[in-house]
Design brief:
Elements lengths: L1 H25 L16 H22 L5 H25 L29
Helix pairs in contact: 1-2, 1-3, 2-3
Length: about 120
Amino acid sequence: MTQKAALVAALFRAGIGLAGLSITLLWIPVPHVGGGGHSVPIVPVLAAVSILMMVTGCTSLSKVTRVAYPRLARWVAVGFALGALVVVALTAALGAGAFGPARNPPPTTPTPPTITFEPPPGQ
């Protein structure tokens, strides 16, 4: 029972890592850091933590299944690596924060009113 719990925990950790990487790269808008701003962008930090979670989840899975299912850990690691590559490819193709809220939406242009109570020009 302890090995099954460790297996589920390792899969959960790796899955949360992949989900965190996709949320970080595809949903969180990347702030523009320019000028003399001393703010630290959080996106690279969250992406690194997510990748670390995937790696530790896969290594924990490898330790748990070393004797019983040696191929399972390899297939899971390959699956999570392919998932991470898909997320990075989507980020490269669509841009960082593509599915998230617009950071600086363009201003809306006011539409002219449909009814006016002013006389036409020249009268």
